[in-house]
Design a protein that fits this description.
This protein has 138 residues and is an alpha+beta fold. It has a single domain, classed as Nucleoside Triphosphate Pyrophosphohydrolase (Alpha-Beta Complex). It is built from 2 helices and 7 strands, in the order ββββαβββα. The protein starts with a strand and ends in a 10-residue tail after the last helix.
Length: 138
């Protein structure tokens, strides 16, 4: 039986209506694919607290969570991920790529240009809006 991993991800939009995207580093699983920043929910931790903690650790900035934007369960070869994407506001600091290879701010309509991790694709398509389709990586 595959392990279920509960993961939270931040949908952070700046004043220019661009969304923060993070490139997974070569030493991560699904290396060189894009994702929304975040991480695993610890035991006994609620999803909002987990996301604030993960963003502080990964990006060295402070966010406030707004609301749950999208929830999706994706089955990979060796595990199942329950991804909870939460809309957030930046409170302080500028995002730094501490664990990721790169960070990028993109307009919604340009999100399709990136090679996304499969679990993130449904949230990307929801952000793009009707008719927005993201190619699934091979």
């Amino acid at each position: 039986m595959k392990k279920l991993v509960k993961v939270v991800a931040a949908i952070i939009e700046n004043e220019q209506n661009e969304i923060l995207c993070a490139l997974r580093s070569p030493n991560m699983t699904m290396a060189n694919m894009w994702e929304f920043p975040g991480g695993k929910v610890e035991k006994e931790e609620d999803i909002y607290t987990a996301l604030v903690r993960e963003i502080k650790e990964e990006l060295n900035c402070t966010i406030e969570t707004v609301d749950l934007f999208h929830e999706h369960t994706h089955e990979y070869e060796h595990f199942i991920i329950q991804l909870l994407c939460i809309k957030c506001n930046m409170i302080s600091g500028q995002p730094e790529a501490r664990e990721h290879s790169a960070l990028l701010w993109l307009k919604r309509e340009n999100l399709v240009s990136l090679k996304w991790a499969p679990a993130d694709i449904p949230a990307v398509e929801k952000l793009i809006g009707p008719g927005g389709q993201v190619p699934c990586p091979n």
